[in-house]
Design brief:
The structure holds 2 protein chains of 2 kinds.
Chain A: E1 2-10, E2 16-25, E3 30-34, H1 41-48, E4 56-61, E5 64-65, H2 71-76, E6 78-81, H3 93-97, H4 99-103, H5 108-121, H6 126-129, H7 139-151, E7 157-161, H8 169-186, E8 189-194, H9 197-203, E9 206-211, E10 214-219, H10 221-226, H11 231-237, H12 241-246, H13 251-254, E11 262-264, H14 269-279, E12 283-287, E13 293-298, H15 299-304, H16 309-312, E14 314-315, H17 318-321, E15 323-324, H18 329-339, E16 343-347, E17 353-358, H19 359-377
Parallel strand pairs in A: 3-8, 3-9, 6-7, 7-8, 11-12, 15-16
Antiparallel strand pairs in A: 1-2, 1-4, 4-5, 9-10, 12-13, 13-14, 16-17
Helix pairs in contact in A: 5-7
Chain B: H1 3-18, E1 20-25, E2 33-36, H2 47-59, H3 65-96, H4 98-101, E3 112-115, H5 117-139, H6 144-164, H7 171-214, H8 219-231, H9 234-250, H10 253-277, H11 283-321, H12 326-348, H13 356-383, H14 386-389, H15 410-434, H16 438-446, H17 451-482, H18 494-502, H19 506-534
Helix pairs in contact in B: 1-2, 1-5, 2-3, 3-5, 3-6, 5-6, 7-8, 7-11, 7-15, 7-17, 7-19, 8-15, 9-15, 10-11, 11-13, 11-15, 12-13, 15-17, 16-17, 17-19, 18-19
The chains are: A alpha/beta, B mainly alpha.
The complex binds adenosine-5'-triphosphate and magnesium ion.
Chain lengths: ~375, ~550
């Protein structure tokens, strides 16, 4: 646990960069610091491992005032990936990652194993990259080595200052996913600085929005999206925050496992019409004998080929029309918009239909948010 | 197209065409008669030189870079060697019947052959061609050791031929045979000038550079001070030191030691007061206080280092050059080489995890320690020699001069040379340390490295190439300035140069100058080598 208590940072030139910060970073959570450039994210972070002195107030690390620890000892157990990466150019990738483990006196064989493990983790092939020097790596690769280095000695606390800033969106997404997956297992206490609200929503268990050295709002991503405290936060999270919020909700939370307007391929077109009318939908899903989604059929199709369901149906690959439980509601919405459906099938990994999700369910979610907001506003 | 190669060919070709190749002097003093390459009738081997000089011009139009590189290296090397070898043959021909080639009235006694302008341009052209070739090879990334081989083949062959006596016909060799023993001694003296002043300069200069890089208010003062030293003409600096050192030499040892003690107390007091008060003083007072502290520290330091260096030089001089302690010096050499070998093998040939690593480390440490012990033994032996403290009865009779300090001779030379070495050393240390990227130091701090870990593991290795460039600059400059030390009776290779000027004997001048040039080049190459070996590949400058 890291606790900021009335923390003030005034620089020697008189500029106050942090103005009384109160905030608790919970164990095993990722807390994202976000805010406009110059709002004091880096400054706040650097007071945790005492790279900057605290002018007023205090910061508790593991329940103790961080000034009670010897500075070096404190820093060795707090992994820090600095904004400018700062790899040692005269060290190989291996030596860079090994810095803290070596200071802690690890065995060389254990260090090597650890380095390979970390390189794998950040998506760099150890055999290719272990003995390279930083100048032989691209900016994004260097940044990944920087993250690996911060993780080096498996510190319980991590400070990560825009760790994925120099990485292309696709790789970044992969790294975010991987990082979240690891975090599931290792449960480190992390302060994560970013400029990117989408990244903040995705990575953060909690988000701290900073403005001019003060905390503007501190809450879970969902709450921040649902209830932005004021105009500043609302602007900051963007006008598409409803959509963003859908990005936080999984299909599994909104789907209806019972409601399945489905027909089998060997059923008749009459059966199909009946199902469509019964469920009050425009089209029914068509599955084979194993329950695997094969396509859909609507009244138009039945009118054109009244005698054979196979002729009336539109065949489609389940990868294209189905969404999975793990997808976000936002992705489900996107699929619906793309196909003009009001309902979209939810399939498992083999393509078997396990439920459906309706546009209505998504709208309800958004409505609930608005009504809540009105309730709090009044 | 390779313009440099063309330039090389032109230099050599035009030289051979227009300039005399050899001069035949009837005796040591008389002016000689010059001969062009085409004037040696009856022997058309010399035309080979001309053809070789034209070859690079043709080759420069070749497109395939790698084969062009090798051809240029071959041509350049051959031209280099033959430019020296072929005229030597012609010279022997001239010496067989000098009368035939000289005016009737010439007084012929020990006639001499002087290499003339065309040989100089020939060598230059050959070197430029060689350089052009090596550059081509570097461009297509031929392995570095092959590049090095290509560069050094011609000089090595030349050296072997020199040892073989092929060039004995040239007058400089005649001069060398006449002065061989003296040359060796002067060379060692020169070497010691350079090493001792570079060594002391290194410690002081790097120390000052370090200090400057830690304290930004102090930096301009230090840099300015060492800069000013550099502007004093070397001859003047030698002269300026004459009087105070002569005075110092007259002092008795005990009185000087007393003065040293007092100076030391003052220095400690100043430094202590600065450490205690500086934070509370206004800026200007603080700087004055700082400068006073620096001067206070400089006085005892300069005294101590000056006397110590002079004495060590005297010991080293007696120990290494008198020949009386051959066994000890031999042992030192062997131990040193063994220590270097174990270190090198451990570093480059034994993998990190190997058990041998530790053994080699122990061996290296013990050999290094043994080397140091042997040096001490040598010095103890040498200090027993008459030439060091001969005739001094008691401590109270001991003067500073007995320790080697005097207005003329080696002491002022070493002091002046040390002062000259400071600028490049201080400036480069300061620049090297100051230019280390702050983000890198910051990430070191963030990982919990202590200040000394940061200094030794980050700042120093990153600044190392820059510091080494300063050492190289200083070393090469010292070899050159060292030749001036002869005017205050310090000896060294400058002795030959001055004698040569007095006697208007070019041979003698060259006898001093060529070893000095060779020393400078070798020193530079060795220091580059050391720099290359000790610099991480991650920051090594990519060869252009
Ligand atoms: N050493 C310093 N002296 C004076 N002011 C400083 C110093 N370091 C930072 N500041 C100021 O403090 C404020 C906060 O800086 P900080 O680096 O924490 O911003 P940040 O939120 O991390 O911004 P960015 O997103 O651009 O990295 C800035 O206005 C900056 O100008
Ligand atoms: Mg920042």
């Amino acid at each position: 646990m890291i606790e900021f208590q009335n923390v003030v940072k005034r620089f020697p030139d008189g500029f106050t960069a942090v103005k009384g910060l109160n905030l608790t970073v919970h164990d095993g959570e990722i807390t994202v610091f976000i805010g406009p450039s110059g709002c004091g994210k880096t400054t706040s972070m650097r007071m945790v491992n005492r790279l900057l002195s605290i002018t007023e107030g205090k910061i508790l690390v593991e329940g103790r005032d961080n000034r009670d620890f010897p500075a070096e000892e404190l820093r060795r157990k707090i992994g820090y990936a600095i904004q400018q990466i700062g790899l040692f150019p005269h060290f190989t990738v291996l030596d860079n990652i090994a810095v803290v483990p070596r200071m802690l006196g690890w065995e060389e064989s254990r260090i090597r194993k650890r380095v390979d493990e970390l390189l794998d983790l950040v998506g760099l092939d150890p055999d290719i990259n272990r003995d390279k020097y930083p100048r032989q790596l691209s900016g994004g690769q260097q940044q990944r080595v920087g993250v690996a280095r911060a993780l080096g000695a498996d510190p319980p606390i991590m400070l990560m200052d825009e760790p994925f800033g120099a990485i292309d969106p696709i790789t970044r997404e992969v790294l975010q996913e991987e990082f979240l997956a690891i975090q599931q297992e290792i449960g480190k206490t992390i302060i994560f600085v970013t400029h990117d609200i989408d990244e903040a929503i995705k990575m953060g268990d909690r988000i701290a929005i900073l403005r001019d050295g003060a905390l503007e709002q501190y809450d879970t991503p969902d709450n921040i999206l649902a209830h932005p405290k004021d105009r500043f936060v609302r602007d900051f999270v963007g006008s598409d925050r409803s959509l963003k919020r859908l990005g936080l909700v999984r299909v599994s939370e909104l789907m209806d496992p019972e409601s399945k307007p489905l027909v089998r391929m060997r059923d008749s077109t009459d059966k199909a019409r009946q199902v469509i009318e019964e469920h009050k939908v425009r089209s029914a899903f068509v599955v084979d004998d194993e329950g695997v989604l094969k396509g859909w059929v609507d009244l138009d199709g039945i009118r054109h080929a009244p005698n054979s369901l196979i002729d009336a149906m539109m065949e489609a690959d389940f990868h294209e029309i189905g969404v999975r439980k793990g997808n976000t509601a936002r992705e489900a919405l996107s699929a619906m918009v793309a196909r003009g459906f009001r309902i979209t099938p939810v399939v498992d990994k083999n393509g078997r239909l396990v439920g459906s999700i309706t546009l209505k369910a998504l709208q309800d979610l958004a409505e609930q948010e608005w009504s809540e907001e009105e309730a709090t506003a009044s | 197209m390779n313009r440099i190669a063309m330039l090389g060919g032109l230099i050599a070709g035009l030289g051979f065409f227009f300039l005399p190749t050899l001069a035949l002097k009837p005796n040591r003093l008389a002016p000689g008669t010059s001969f062009n390459l085409f004037e040696f009738q009856g022997d058309d081997r010399y035309l080979v030189l001309f053809v070789l000089a034209l070859l690079p011009i043709l080759l420069s139009f070749r497109h395939d870079v790698e084969s062009r590189g090798w051809l240029l290296v071959g041509t350049g090397s051959l031209l280099f060697v033959l430019t020296l070898v072929l005229p030597a043959g012609a010279g022997r021909l001239l010496l067989e019947t000098p009368e035939a080639f000289l005016d009737g009235g010439a007084f012929i006694r020990n006639p001499r052959i002087l290499p003339a302008g065309a040989i100089a341009t020939g060598l230059l052209g050959a070197y430029v061609t060689l350089f052009a070739g090596v550059r081509d090879l570097a461009k297509v990334e031929v392995q570095t050791w092959l590049q090095a081989l290509a560069t050094w083949l011609a000089p090595i062959v030349t050296l072997l031929l020199l040892l073989n006596g092929t060039f004995d016909v040239y007058s400089i060799m005649v001069e060398f045979y006449a002065n061989g023993a003296a040359l060796e001694q002067k060379f060692v003296e020169h070497l010691m000038f350079v090493f001792i002043s570079l060594g002391v300069g290194f410690v002081v200069g790097v120390g000052l550079g370090l200090w400057a890089s830690r304290d930004e208010r102090l930096a301009p003062i230090i840099l300015y001070a060492v800069g000013i030293i550099q502007t004093i003409p070397s001859l003047a600096l030698f002269g300026v030191l004459l009087v105070p050192l002569a005075r110092l030499g007259d002092q008795s040892f005990l009185a000087t030691a007393g003065f040293f003690g007092i100076a030391l107390v003052v220095a400690v007091a100043l430094a202590g007061s600065y450490a205690l008060l500086a934070d509370r003083e206004p800026g200007r007072v603080r700087i004055v206080h700082l400068i006073a502290t620096a001067i206070g520290a400089a006085v005892p330091l300069a005294l101590f280092v000056g006397v110590l260096v002079s004495f060590v030089f005297r010991l080293a001089n007696v120990g290494f050059t008198s020949g009386a302690y051959g066994d000890t010096t031999g042992t030192i050499l062997v131990l040193l080489l063994a220590a270097l070998a174990t270190w090198g093998v451990g570093r480059w040939f034994v993998p990190d995890e190997s058990r041998w690593r530790r053994g080699l480390k122990v061996a290296n440490w013990s050999l290094s320690a043994a080397t140091a012990v042997a040096v001490v033994v040598l010095f103890v032996q040498a200090s027993g020699s008459n030439r060091v403290l001969g005739g001094v009865e008691s401590l109270s009779a001991l003067t500073i001069r007995d320790l080697g300090v005097s207005g003329i001779g080696v002491a002022p030379a070493l002091i002046a040379l040390t002062l000259y070495s400071l600028l490049p050393l201080v400036r480069n240390t300061y620049a090297g340390l100051n230019n280390v990227d702050l983000a890198i130091i910051d990430s070191g701090r963030g990982m919990g490295m202590t200040p000394s870990q940061r200094f030794f593991q980050i700042e120093l290795p990153l600044a190392f190439p820059v510091i080494m460039a300063g050492v190289r600059n200083a070393g090469v400059a010292l070899v050159g300035i060292g030749t001036v030390a002869t005017v205050i009776g310090a000896g060294g290779l400058g002795d030959f140069v001055i004698q040569g000027i007095v006697n208007t004997s070019i041979d003698q001048i060259l006898l001093g100058a060529i070893p000095a040039i060779a020393l400078a080049l070798v020193l530079d190459a060795v220091l580059r080598g050391v720099e290359g070996l000790l610099t991480s590949p991650g920051i090594r400058q990519v060869q252009q």
